[in-house]
Amino acid sequence: MLFAAALYLLIFPNSLGLAQTEKSPLESLYEQNTMSVLWFQKSGEAKALYYQGYYLGKLRLDEILSKKPKRNGLKPAIVLDIDETVLDNSPYHAWMVQTGKGDPIDWSDWFNRAEAKPLPGALDFLKYAESRGVEIFYISNRKEAHKEATIKNLQMVGAPKADKEHVLLQQEKEIGKEIRREQVAKDYDIVLLFGDNLGDFKGFDQLSAADRKKSVDRINAEFGSKFIVFPNPMYGDWEGAIYNYDLKKAPAEYMKIRKDNLQSFEP
Predict the structure, then answer these.
(1) For position 14, what pLDDT does the model report?
(2) Counting CB atoms within 10 angstroms of each CB, which of 8, 146, 149, 233 has the fewest?
(3) How far apart are CA 14 and CA 208, in angstroms?
(4) How far apart are CA 204 and CA 41, in angstroms?
(5) Cα–Cα distance between 128 and 54 in angstroms, integer?
(6) What average pLDDT does this structure show over 46-54?
(7) Cβ neighbours of residue 252 under 8 Å, at least 6 residues apart?
(8) pTM, rounded to two decimals
(9) DSSP string spanning the chain?
(10) Sign of CA dihedral 90, 95, 100, 106
């Protein structure tokens, strides 16, 4: 009797309301990010890489300040991205995975909460840089409309120099960050840059996936020397480049492109 009942459930699961709700293409697309977000939030490796990056930044800063004369008398400065460099936005991406919502992706509700936590090592390094007399600039592609909330969040976690003069956000129709970096470079000697996206450094905007890798090879000596990169498997231009920066495709198209770009072996 028990065997017959089990067999019936296997053949007719809907009869007892056991059928799972079919996911929409968008929900399936976001669900693919589960392991990336989980790794970012739960792995000791992710935490270790942040500590490592900021420790390397401290070593390089000490070396630069001890050996490098001021360029034309300019004060030394460091430039940092904000998201996934100083502040942790992974809860927003976890929400997208769990709910299948967020299309089109709009960070406004999350940014306006000003609840993002600091990433490992970030505050200690920033306070150390400030103690060494180094100017600090935060250059992010958050929109200008989020400036007040962004400054509030940075101030709440204790980030130094979190004010309108040092938090430079993306202006309307602006592509990339180079204009803002050049603006800082007029008055300061930028000695180190920190980010989780190659677009946080010069020369990577709108490059194809292949050209991004070639550019990394070409300037490989800059990484760990002037550029400090942090891990972010959740989102970024690395993914946008795979789509040729076309962010208006259907979810099913994105999933196909992802699989088509995998390099597998022939069993």
Answers:
(1) 53
(2) 8
(3) 47
(4) 27
(5) 11
(6) 98
(7) 25
(8) 0.90
(9) -HHHHHHHHHH-GGGGT-PPPPPPHHHHHHHTTHHHHHHHHH-HHHHHHHHHHHHHHHHHHHHHHHHPPPGGGPEEEEEE--BTTTEE-HHHHHHHHHH---SS---HHHHHHT-PEEPTTHHHHHHHHHHTT-EEEEEEEEEGGGHHHHHHHHHHHT-TT-STTTEEEEPTT--SSHHHHHHHHTTEEEEEEEESSGGGSTT-TT--HHHHHHHHHHTGGGBTTTEEE----SSSHHHHHHTTT---S-HHHHHHHHHHT------
(10) negative
User: Tokens 């490059």 correspond to what residue?
Assistant: 207
Q: Is 150 exposed, middle or buried (0-12, 13-18, 19+ CB in 10 A)?
A: buried
The Cα 183–Cα 191 span in angstroms is: 15
CA atoms of 86 and 125, how far apart (whole Å): 10
Q: Is the pLDDT of residue 10 over 60?
A: no
pLDDT for res 67 = 86
Cα–Cα distance, 131 to 125 (Å, whole number): 10
